[in-house]
């Protein structure tokens, strides 16, 4: 049994290109260094800075706006100058901005540079997504994105753990470590991916010579894709409660301790690292992507409905985390594959931009609206609303599967 399990892991991770592994390693280093974000509120409200919670909320608003704008511009630039240059510029620019932000005391300058930093960092993601599509094949594309997701989750976990230790000594060190991690990721790109990226540049030039319409059809005329983006935004807005409003519910209503809440969040990441690649390997290509997406979104809806039924003990909380994680592992990788398959080499950056913008908008608006709803109508009603939205989105995804243009 053990040998069969080990063999399954080996098969799930084989067949991916060297460049895909390098991109995931770069993402791991980059996300491991994104330790400022979880501690930004604590930093701004610390005695050293002295700002209020309201001020910190405004800074996070700038962060969300920067991410939204950066995703759009990053996608456009990816189609114009190539994913390698955009990723390199984003990593280098992020390194500089992290260092600069560590020395700023003025509130308005903090808002400005937080916007710029988020703008640059989020411009990296459409370019990175486009690069993974280029270095993968249709047969292993979903697994390639799953590997990248694994790197993001692992990097976030490592960064949060390291950030907690570093913040105990100095919040300013968080910015420096983040800057250094961006710089190291940029160095890795230059050393190991510059030559491979030259192949992409050559192919783009060849296409431009032979194609009468070098830019290809625009994503902004793909109206059915707007429906997909709207559904992704609704789903993501609900899903992000796992890392925001839900932790407050665990603490204030269920009276879980901080270590218990940390274990619940870690359980989500551990499951993704251990299971997702094998799961995707078993499912990839067997059914329509929208089927898996609908099932995943539906499981997230079931999670919220069960959360709204009443008080739960810690073991039940772990069981519910298992449900939402299963939904996440089914929905998100196949969402990535869906937009990739709908795009072409001409406009992949535009598609990646819209997809990234959907998640950026959801990350900003979802927790904001749910927290207001929880404050006025209570947590249980909030979970029922989130659950109902997810189930509705799941049903629409199933309906879209029957449409010819999907």
Automatic annotation (TrEMBL):
Stretches assigned to the Major facilitator superfamily (MFS) profile domain: 1-405
Keywords, ordered alphabetically: Cell membrane, Membrane, Transmembrane, Transmembrane helix, Transport
Subcellular location per the Swiss-Prot or TrEMBL entry: Cell membrane
PANTHER family for this protein: MULTIDRUG RESISTANCE PROTEIN MDTH (PTHR23517:SF2), RESISTANCE PROTEIN MDTM, PUTATIVE-RELATED-RELATED (PTHR23517)
Organism: Flavihumibacter fluminis
PROSITE patterns noted in UniProt: MFS (PS50850)
TM region positions: 20-44, 56-75, 95-120, 173-193, 225-249, 261-283, 290-310, 316-339, 351-369, 381-400
Keyword NADP attributed: no
InterPro entries: MFS, MFS_dom, MFS_trans_sf, MFS_Transporters
Family matches, as Pfam families: MFS_1
Name of the protein described by the UniProt record: MFS transporter
Membrane topology field: Multi-pass membrane protein
